[in-house]
């Protein structure tokens, strides 16, 4: 039986997008040590930013803030929320450099699963756009944001410890759900 190791990083990632600070704190990771190499094991090809320290990932149309090692861990008392269907959600900051409404979706790379969805409250059609990204299950996920016919794609690892974070309060008026199609 493999031993389980818990490691916590007291990392504070801060970024300012259009004058708004985006913060991520207390990222914790869990990993199981293995005694034998497993050549057929899937390795999630996460998008590494800033040497693994996290930060802004961008192209000419969109920017998004990614956590260190592009690993998002959901745990009791931690960042994020558990949605009514058990999915795991987290607030993520995007910057639209091109006019248009942001659409976001994604797919699981390491198995079957429903699509990633995003809860978006539209205000304006360019500039900073905070959203909630919602992952149906833990796993390796490819996420794509689209605006004005152009896109930005990244890959993240989603982990859940215990019951995960607290439950999410229902969305109020003005919110919409985005589940943009992603390329396979």
Can you walk through the features of this model?
This protein is an all-beta fold and 184 residues long. The chain has a single domain (45-178), classed as Sandwich (Immunoglobulin-like). Helices cover 0% and strands 52% of the residues. The protein is built from no helices and 13 strands. The strands form three sheets. Strands 3, 4, 6, 7, 9, 10 and 13 form a seven-stranded antiparallel β-sheet that branches. A four-stranded mixed β-sheet has the order 5-12-11-8, with no helix packed on it. Strand 1 and strand 2 form a beta hairpin. The radius of gyration is 16 Å and the shape is globular. 29% of the residues are buried. Mean pLDDT is 78; it is low at 1-35.
Seen as an oligomer or otherwise, the chain set is single chain
Q: Mean pLDDT score, rounded?
A: 78
Described by strand count, sense and barrel closure, the largest sheet is: 7 strands, antiparallel
Tell me the overall shape: globular
Which CATH architecture is right? Answer: Sandwich
For this structure, the CATH topology is Immunoglobulin-like
Low-confidence stretches: 1-35
Give the N-terminus to C-terminus distance in angstroms: 36 Å
How do the helices and strands follow one another from N- to C-terminus?
Answer: EEEEEEEEEEEEE
- Taking Cα atoms only, what radius of gyration do you get, to the nearest Å? 16 Å
Measured as a percent range, the helix fraction is under 10%
Relevant CATH superfamily: Immunoglobulins
* Strand-pairing-aware structural class: mainly beta
**Could you tell me the number of beta strands?**
13
The total tally of domains equals 1
């Amino acid at each position: 039986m493999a031993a389980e190791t818990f490691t916590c990083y007291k990392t504070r990632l801060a970024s300012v997008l259009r004058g708004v600070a985006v913060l991520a704190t207390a990222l914790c990771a869990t990993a199981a040590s293995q005694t034998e190499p497993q050549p057929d094991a899937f390795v999630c090809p996460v998008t590494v930013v800033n040497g693994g320290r996290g930060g802004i990932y961008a192209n000419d149309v969109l920017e998004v803030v990614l956590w260190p090692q592009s690993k998002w861990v959901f745990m009791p008392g931690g960042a994020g929320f558990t949605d009514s269907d058990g999915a795991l959600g987290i607030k993520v900051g995007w910057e639209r450099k091109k006019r248009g409404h942001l659409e976001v979706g994604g797919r699981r790379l390491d198995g079957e699963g429903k699509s990633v969805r995003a809860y978006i409250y539209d205000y304006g059609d360019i500039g900073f756009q905070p959203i909630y990204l919602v992952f149906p299950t833990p796993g390796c996920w490819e996420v794509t944001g689209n605006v004005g016919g152009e896109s930005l794609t990244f890959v993240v690892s989603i982990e859940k410890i215990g019951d995960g974070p607290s439950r999410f309060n229902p969305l109020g008026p003005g919110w919409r759900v985005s589940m943009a199609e992603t390329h396979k």
